[in-house]
Each structure stands twice: as C-alpha cells, then as structure tokens.
C-alpha cells in the first residue's frame, strides 16, 4: 500500500454512510436478503439492496460505491443486469497495516 492509495481509502471512509456500507457488507447474511436469482452471497450483495438499506438516491449510492470500488475497498461482480459488491478483505487488511 502506498500513501496515495491510503489517502483515497481514507477519503472513502470519511462518510458515515460509506462506513455503514462497509459494516453491512462485513456480515451480508445478517444485513441483506439473498438475491432471488443467486440465493447466496458468494459474489456479494445486490447493489439495489444496498441502495434500499441506505435510503439514499440511486445516483448518490452509485457514486459512493464506484468510488469505494476504485480505491479497492469493494469488489464488483456482474450477473446479467445485476451488480453485486463485496468487501475486498485483502485491501482492508493492507490499509489497517499501513495506518498502524
């Protein structure tokens, strides 16, 4: 991890909703229903469910999630028209080590 990446992650985590999203995704089974098509969380949580739980507009959540993905906090997977996101635990651990 370098200073630029750590700074970008810090910016992403400087917002209450984005931190909540990271908390929710830590235990997706507890915080979200499984998508009716996949019925599992191996590829993460459907973006629609994240948006609904956050209670913010689709455009706001989209911006948040895109920025979190760009800095490496989230991994995106597509299944047809649906996008799924999960935490990138490797980057999270690297960030923790870096700021320690």
UniProtKB/TrEMBL annotation:
<dbReference type="InterPro" id="IPR036388">
    <property type="entry name" value="WH-like_DNA-bd_sf"/>
</dbReference>
<protein>
    <submittedName>
        <fullName>ArsR family transcriptional regulator</fullName>
    </submittedName>
</protein>
<feature type="domain" description="HTH arsR-type">
    <location>
        <begin position="1"/>
        <end position="100"/>
    </location>
</feature>
<keyword id="KW-0805">Transcription regulation</keyword>
<dbReference type="InterPro" id="IPR051081">
    <property type="entry name" value="HTH_MetalResp_TranReg"/>
</dbReference>
<dbReference type="InterPro" id="IPR036390">
    <property type="entry name" value="WH_DNA-bd_sf"/>
</dbReference>
<keyword id="KW-0804">Transcription</keyword>
<keyword id="KW-0238">DNA-binding</keyword>
<dbReference type="InterPro" id="IPR011991">
    <property type="entry name" value="ArsR-like_HTH"/>
</dbReference>
<dbReference type="InterPro" id="IPR001845">
    <property type="entry name" value="HTH_ArsR_DNA-bd_dom"/>
</dbReference>
């Amino acid at each position: 991890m370098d200073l630029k990446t750590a700074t970008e992650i810090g910016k992403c985590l400087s917002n209450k909703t984005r931190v909540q999203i990271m908390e929710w995704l830590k235990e997706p089974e507890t915080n979200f229903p499984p998508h009716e098509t996949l019925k599992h969380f191996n590829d993460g949580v459907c973006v629609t469910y994240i948006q609904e739980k956050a209670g913010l507009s689709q455009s706001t959540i989209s911006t948040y999630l895109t920025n979190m993905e760009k800095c490496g906090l989230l991994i995106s997977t597509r299944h047809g028209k649906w996008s799924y996101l999960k935490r990138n635990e490797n980057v999270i651990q690297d960030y923790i080590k870096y700021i320690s």
